[in-house]
Structure formats: C-alpha cells, structure tokens
Amino acid sequence: MAISDTKPTPQPPALSVHSPSSHFSFSITAILPTMACPVAHDKQASPPPGHPELTPTPTDTPNGLTTPGFEPNAPASVVPSNEVTLAALLYESGADGRTVDDWPLPEDLDFSRPVSELLRKGTQRAHVAAEHSAGAVALTNGELELQEYIRWLAILWRVYDALERGLDEHATNQTLAPTYNPSLLARAPELAADITYLLPRLPSYVTKPTSPPLKGTEAVPLPPFKLPPFLEEVFVNTPAPLEVYLGRIRDLSRNADLAPRLLAHAYVRYLGDLSGGQVIGARLRKAYGLTGLDGRRFYYFDLLNDTSAAETGEETVGERKKKLNEVKAWYRRGMDEGAGEDEKLKAAEVREANVAFVLNTHLFSLIQPPSDKKLRYFELRDKENERRANLEKPRRTWWRTIQQTVYFFLALLFGLFLTQIAVPFVAPHIAPHYQQHVQPVVDSTIAPWWNDKVSPWWHNHGWPILEKQMAKSRRSFI
C-alpha cells in the first residue's frame, strides 16, 4: 500500500453491498471479472427471484491511499456468516472448479520470489473485509464487555487448538519444520491461561458451571479451563463460521499431501497476532485494568521466552517492538526455507492464505458488540432463559435412567425409615427432657420477648416496609 503526495489516483466505480445478518458492509471494485452472489444459482442462467440489484456508486480512496489492483484475489465476501460454507466461499471467489486449487490469483505474482513476499502481496486485498465488522471494531477499540471478550478468546482457543494439533502431527514435514516452534508460537496454552485468569473477574452466578459437565469428543475436545454456560455454547452449538474454519484445518491435517498448506493458516494467524494483535493487546490492558502479562499472554511473543521485563512492566515500547520484529523476521525466513523454490507449492500457499483470510473475516461476525440499549432485568432474564433453552440437552441413556430411579427409591426408603421408625423410637426419650428443661425457658423468656417486642415491631414497621418494596417491584416489572 503506497501513500501518494499528489492528487489521489482515481478509483474505479465500486459496488456497495451491506449484509445485515453478518454485520458486514463492503465496497467491491466494479471491474472484477467475477462477482459473487449471495443467492445461489448457476452462473450461466438468468438471475433468480431475490437476486440483489447492485448499483455502481463512485468512491474515492481517503487520504491518498492506493491499493494495488489485484484481480480478483479474495473480493469481500457477501455470504451471510450464519450460512457460510466452504463451497459458497469458493463460488463467490470465482473458483469454477469448486476447489481451493481453483482460487483465482493475481496475475502479476512472480512465483520465483520468496513465499513470504508472495503471501504478503497475494493477500493484501483480503485484509480489507474485516475492517467493516462491528465486532472487530469493538474488539480493536477495547469496547467489548469482559464476558464477551472471554467468549471470543474461547472461540480462538478452538481455532488454535485445531491448528496446533495439526502442526504437531506434521512437525517433521519439510515445509512446516523450519517454523515449528511451539514454545514460542503455541497460542492455545496462552489463551487458556488468559481465560482462567479473567473468569474470576466476572460475577459468580455467571461463571457457575452447568451440571452435568460436558464430555469432550475427538471432534470437540474440551479445554483446560472451566466452561460456564456462556462458554459452553461455543463447544455445544458450534457456529457456522467456526465449524467451516475448523473443518478446513482438520481436512488439511488428515492428509499428508495437503498438510504443508497449514503453513498458510499459521501465517495468517501468527503474523496477525504479531502485528495488529499487538494493538488489541495494548488496548485491553487499559480497558480491563490488566497489569503485567496476566490476562493478555495471548499477545506476547519472545524468541528467548523471557517474560521477566514484561511481567514487571519494565519493558519499553522500543524493546517490545524489537522483540516482535525479531520473531516476524525469524518466521519469514522459516517460511522461505520451508517452501524453497517449489512454485506450485507457493501458489497453493497463496490460495490457502486467501481462504484463511476470508474464514477469519467471517469469524469476526461471531463477536457481539456492546448494545447501546441497556436491557432491563427481566429482559436479561428472558434472554438468558432463551439461550439456555437453545443449548443442546445431554442425551438420556438407559444407565442414567436406572441410576435416577435407584436414587429415587433410596430417598423414599430413607424417608419412610425416619417417619415410621426413627421418630417414634426417639420421641418418647426426648419429650420428658424438653418439657422439664426447655419448655420453662421458652415460656418465661422467649415467648414474652417475642410477643412484647418482635410482634408489635413487625406489625408497625416491618410489614409496611415489605408492602412498599413489593409495590415498587410490581411497578418496575410492569
């Protein structure tokens, strides 16, 4: 991206598209040869009913900023995020063969260049789409409620857990080995540490785990942190953008021939954390009153794994920037070494990186930005009840049914034992002692005090106060 000191270069007409369901608004260059459509239909057929009318409107790039005219290279996605599938993303990208290998690439890419340079240049336009996400803006500005931020960290944990499991499995792969350094890069443990640190800052009724607890599966492994209801839904009802993202990573991890493409997903995630993620980390420190690294370890990288200066707050901005640049330079060298001179592999990495960028853009739609309207207590209650009702209920098994039946009859037998055996046996022994020692004290001390002091005060003061509070509660409810 270049900054022009002269008159801005005129930009081609753009198509303004807004998707209310996904909180995205895009400006798509009109000269793109292949335009995506949110209404599925055959490209050669006439548009079906419901096809949107796209009217060209002139736009100018602000402040003289110009963007290289890549064609078509990851145009902004208009697929609703709650309906996203990999097939839909491939369709709107112009991949006629409906595979990632058919993803269109910029024509001016020179595949003799290092892969780190190709990835940076070949994905530049893919960066633009996320800028219009309300959730991403709130995250970057440190405006998310703490509970929503923790939920976002749990979503990221699932992404990094899947990605880093794949990288671990193929650690000796020729393409992945030069950048394999879990002690430096692994983010899943850091995310778990941040969530564990931040959860106690929420009210106890919010963080109380549900019963019975969830059980992990191979497809949905459970994390090393507690799962209160607002985090449980991230693992029970996996939203579409996250499901597609995880599915793509698993497909690459299961196939040794496709595993080298995990480098593209690692590039998008790790380099993003090392760059724009640092801005978010700095904002969060002030937004949530975080001191040291606790609560924001996700954003900290150090080649020497030395966190002492950051823990004490003695690390300067210059020192921090130097460490980040060292990590980024090391990672780019590793990518270039892993890809070597294989031009076919480099093209596959650029295509996969564009897919990763689009998937991450849709992932941002899962962030729920703070609402300007403050909900009343009964609205919050109804919203929470609705959310709990939508959670998938644990399946009832024969073993669980038998177990509950046995518990019921045991409780019934214990109650019969108390009423029919224990009480009749003990009562004759206790009654004389009560009448001789306890009853005189009650009659001479407690009963007069209760009748003379407590009862009049309740009728004159306590009951009127309770009536006023009940009336006030009824008015507030109405």
TrEMBL record:
Bilayer-spanning residue ranges: 406-427
UniProt keyword Iron present: yes
GO molecular function terms attached to this record: heme oxygenase (decyclizing) activity; metal ion binding
A Gene Ontology biological process term: heme oxidation
Top-level lineage group: Eukaryota
UniProt keywords, alphabetically: Heme, Iron, Membrane, Metal-binding, Transmembrane, Transmembrane helix
Name of the protein: Heme oxygenase
Annotated organism of origin: Vanrija pseudolonga
Gene behind the chain: hmox_1
